[in-house]
Amino acid sequence: MAEDLVLETWDLQCERNGQEHRTAEMGCQQLVVRRGQPFIITLHFSGRGYEEGVDKLAFNVETGPCPIETSGTKSHFAVTDFPEESGWSAVVQQQDGDSLSISLCSPASACIGRYSLTLETSTGYQGTSCHIGHFILLFNAWHPEDTVFLRDEDERCEYVLSQQGLIYQGTCDYITSVPWNFGQFEDDVLSICLKLLDTNPKFLRDQNQDCSHRNDPVYIGRVMSAMINCNDEDLGVLAGRWDNHYEDGTSPMAWIGSVDILKRWKKFGCQPVKYGQCWVFAAVACTVMRCLGIPSRVVTNYSSAHDTNGNLVIDRYLNESGDLQQSKEKIWNFHCWIESWMARPDLAPGYDGWQVLDPTPQEKSEGVFCCGPAPVRAIKEGDLQLKYDIPFVFAEVNADLVYWVVKHDGSQKKSTQSSLVGKNISTKSVGRDNREDITHNYKYPEGSEKEREVFAKAERERSSLREDDEGLHVRIKLSEGANNGCDFNVFAAISNNTDTERVCRLMLCARTASYNGTVGPQCGMKDLLNVTLAPRAEKTVPLCILYEKYRESLTQDNLIKVVALLTEYQTGNIAVAMRDVYIQNPEIKIRVLGEPMQKRKLVAEISLVNPLTDPLNNCVFVVEGTGLTDGQRIKELEEPVQPQAEVKFRLDFVPYQAGLRKLMVDFESDKLMGVKGYRNVIIAPQPK
Known about the structure:
Blueprint: E1 6-11, H1 14-20, E2 31-34, E3 39-46, E4 55-63, E5 74-80, E6 89-96, E7 99-105, E8 113-123, E9 126-138, H2 153-161, E10 164-170, E11 175-181, H3 189-198, H4 201-205, H5 207-212, H6 217-227, E12 238-240, H7 259-267, E13 273-276, H8 278-292, E14 296-306, E15 313-319, E16 330-342, E17 353-357, E18 374-375, H9 376-381, H10 390-398, E19 400-406, E20 412-420, E21 423-428, E22 435-437, H11 439-442, H12 449-457, E23 472-478, E24 482-483, E25 488-496, E26 502-513, E27 519-533, E28 538-545, H13 547-550, E29 559-568, E30 574-584, E31 589-593, E32 602-609, E33 620-624, E34 633-636, E35 646-653, E36 659-668, E37 675-683
Parallel strand pairs: 2-9, 5-6, 12-13, 15-19, 24-30
Antiparallel strand pairs: 1-3, 3-7, 4-5, 4-8, 6-7, 8-9, 10-11, 14-16, 14-21, 16-17, 17-18, 19-20, 21-22, 23-25, 25-28, 26-27, 26-29, 29-30, 31-32, 32-35, 33-34, 33-36, 36-37
């Protein structure tokens, strides 16, 4: 009788498998593989090698605290000649003396997470069991049978593998971008993402059921949408705040990456990190989803409606001076969410592909502050009855905006103007730092027959809200850019589209504002009581907005909301126009000195000019970039930066990864905040 087969050592081939599974940047200390794709391990036996027909080998894989075969969290499978199509499999790849290479493979529908791997050997009636380590299983966008399969390789590289990107902000009239370090392959990020799954309320309520659903990206997306915020008194990652009081935390404008946020959450015992706003919530969610292998991207919707009563109309109330009344229903200057790519086998055919997930806490869904996944196709087609939260997202991009002017006697006059929300829906282009407009994915062209069909399906009539071409009109224009520290002009362009002369009152009012629609103190005003407009004529009226008027109340969002009310005396009709003006911050200039090469010292020269008439105090630069700086580098200035003066410093760093990288910089001070800059750096591989 043959002597027992004794396992001496083993090699999980972390580096080789990492390269083949595109997880090498997560490090070689742990085995990280993607589901449905084979990975190789090598077994070294003592005394004699494996003999087919004499020795039997089998593996056990388990995930979660209570693994059960029927839940898909445990599997026992023997080494065979051919891979198993529907379940876990193990096949001998190569034998070299006492060494045996085995190819293991999970089904493309396996639960993701951390697994333990045990080998069972038996010769005759004798058998032994040996735990040979752990591995982490991720979704696989490269496998045609995975529910997150994405066909295009460039898109897979952008939406799964890219660790840096751009997020769009500003206004629909002046779109800006800020750099973001997603850093999903940085040290410890994967373990933090798995910890996030293990602290979600569904896991704490029923561990077996939660783990058994981790094969489904729809389930994972919904859990993550809830766990990025902390509004349900769970152990969520971020606390949101929109009131410009961030003294007990970090201003949302100061973040330039997700890694620091996730590490803080873990370091301080899963306490929410202060503070986030929509783009921060979305960016952290994008990091988590990409880390787990689900293709994801951050999307910005301009003039985004927050419809609280579901009637698909946003009513805004103003007094006769143009002051907006605060309301739960708002038009956000912009709003960010993420889209994640997945199949929707829980729905009828046709709704696979991009799904909206919104982790910013706005409204509850099934009793929890989360939103989605909502198929983008369903939003475009007006299929509001499908899962999840489609009416809310449909309103964000389609609701009508109606202005009501409240007169001194309490009566209300509906403006002849209405305007659609959901403009310039944007995301970063694949492989380039350009903006891609994806509005057409969410809505048919305005005024098209197909658009009318969608609204009929969504059960509402928009014709009563359409602006009449006849009568008086007003628009707000900006002649040139508005720079922080400077005075600038805005203009009310008023027109009479009738055949008779009209006498009107024009009220222009400017207030500092936040991106979520909240307004602050007045910083400009003009009231013209008698404006005569000839038939078919147009006039332009300027309003100068002075720096000394907005300097104290400008929020970190750098926005000024300008409202124009044009009242016709004869009919009492009122035309309303509103525009958000983005106040531009100075440019951060970044020069890279030296030859960019992996593991060779580089120097970045970073500079900024103070454009204000006041000195800047408590100045801090934060520099980071995946593959470049190995975490954040912080430069605190000892002296104030005087008005119109330039501050310049140099920073040494040693790039540790080759390829295209982004060096990102954030500047904070007492009067100038959230100033961002970045530079692309191509790092050559280290010579072999």
